[in-house]
Amino acid sequence: MEKTIISEGKTTNEAIENGLKKLNVSRNSVEVKVLENEDKRSFFSILAPRVVKVELTIKEGKEKKQSEIESKPKREIELSKEEQEQAKNNIENFLKDFVKHLPEGTTYNIEPTQEYINVNIMNKELGYLIGYRGETLYALQNILSAIAGKGIENKVRVILDIEGYKQRREKTLEELAEKVAKTVIKTKKPVKLEPMQAYERKIIHSKLQKNPKIDTTSVGEEPYRRVVISLKK
Q1: Host H or E run for residue 219
Q2: Among residues 140, 153, 176, 200, which is most buried (max CB within 10 A)?
Q3: How far is 116 from 102, CA to CA, in rounded Å?
C-alpha cells in the first residue's frame, strides 16, 4: 500500500476526505500536511479554480483498512455482578414509566451480561419506535445506554431490539450484500450502498470478507458513512 499521497480538493476537508478514500484508511490513521491552503490566495489568482493540496502519510502500524477495523469485534468492558444489577435496575426504573406511553400489551425483558445489557421490547404496533432503517431504535438505544450507566464507573453498553427488528434487518442486509457482490462481479463496477449505522456496516463487511473476488470499504463521515463494494485489485 502507498504510504504517502498528494490529494486535492476545493477545501482542506474535501482534500483530506479524497485522500482517505484513495488510501482506504480512517482519519486517525494518517498525518496531514497542508501544501496549499485555500485562505492563501493572491489577488491575481482569485478567478482561478480553488484547489487545496494536502499530503497524507499513513502512520506506522496504521495500515489496516477501515473495513477490517469495523468488522473486527471490539474489546468489551466487563461489568461486575454489582454493575450488571445496578444497570438493570436503572433501565427497569425507566421502562416501567416508559411503557405506560406505549400501546397496550407492550412488554419488555432485560438480560444483563458481562459485556452489555440486552433489552427487548415487544409489541407488533411499535413500528414507529423502530423508525426508518432503525433510526429511532438506535436513538432510544443510546438513551438507554446513558440511563444504564448512571452511578456506574464503567461505560455500560445497551443492545436494544424491538419486536425482532434487528434479526430481520441482519438477514435483509446479508441478502443485499450477496446480491450486490454478484452485480459487482458481473459489471466490474463498484457499488456504493446507502448510509448505514456502524452495526449494519459491520454485517456487510463480515458477510463478504471471505469472498475472494470482493473488497469492501467504508467511506464518508457519520451519520452518512456507507459501504462501497468493489472488485479486489
Answers
A1: strand 214-219
A2: 200
A3: 25
* pTM > 0.85: yes or no: no
The CATH number assigned to the domain with range 81-163 reads 3.30.300.20
Q: Bin 12: left if φ > 0, else alpha if -120 < ψ < 50, else beta.
A: alpha
Q: Please name the CATH architecture into which domain 167-231 falls.
A: 2-Layer Sandwich (3.30)
Give me the tens of pLDDT residue by residue for the chain, a chain 233 residues long. 457 888 888 777 778 888 887 777 777 778 888 885 544 444 444 444 567 888 888 876 554 555 555 555 555 578 999 999 999 999 999 999 999 999 999 999 999 999 999 999 999 999 999 998 888 999 999 999 999 999 998 889 999 999 999 989 999 999 999 999 999 999 999 999 999 888 899 999 999 999 999 999 988 877 788 999 999 87
Q: What angle do CA 4, 8, 13 make, to 5 degrees?
A: 95
